[in-house]
Amino acid sequence: MGYISKIFVTVDVVLFKKYAEFLHILLIKRKNEPFRDYWALPGGFVDENEALEVAAKRELSEETSISVEEVTQIKAYGKPFRDPRSHMVTVAFYGEVGEEVIGQAADDAKELKWFRIDELPPLAFDHLDIVRDAIDLKTKSKSI
């Protein structure tokens, strides 16, 4: 029998909106361990035979009831022990919505809230690193 990998692939989404002249991102409060009751990016496991971008949009929709047309890949994060459950590699994306979009927590999200990027709470996993990279990319692209 051949080698079977114990590495899992997930996706995370940094969702931006500009509101009252400030850039905000959407965070969910986790319903389950690890990091129960911590704020985190919407995201989750990639299904078998599912494209990464499709998984990112699906997870965003499942956890926040928000659908987006387009997401842009930030990069992959695969540092061992970034997730206490197993070795997880996440591919992070960012997207944008209009200021009228609010969302609703669903699936394994207990709650959701828009945070100004300069007023973020402590985040689960390595999500602060992902958010920082997304902000860097976003401000360089100048589309918001």
Number of E-type strands: 7
Strand content: 35-45%
Q: Any idea what the shape is?
A: globular
Q: Structural class, judged by helices and strands?
A: alpha+beta
First-last Cα distance: 51 Å
Characterise the protein shown here:
- There is one protein chain.
- With 144 residues, the chain is of the alpha+beta class.
- It has two helices and seven strands, in the order E-E-E-E-H-E-E-E-H.
- Strands 1, 2, 3, 4, 5, 6 and 7 form a seven-stranded mixed β-sheet that branches.
- The longest helix has 15 residues, at 127-141.
- The radius of gyration is 15 Å and the shape is globular.
Brief summary of the model shown:
This protein has 144 residues and is an alpha+beta fold. It has 2 helices and 7 strands.
SSE layout:
Blueprint: E1 7-19, E2 22-30, E3 39-40, E4 43-45, H1 52-64, E5 72-77, E6 87-96, E7 109-116, H2 127-141
Parallel strand pairs: 1-6
Antiparallel strand pairs: 1-2, 1-4, 2-3, 2-7, 5-6
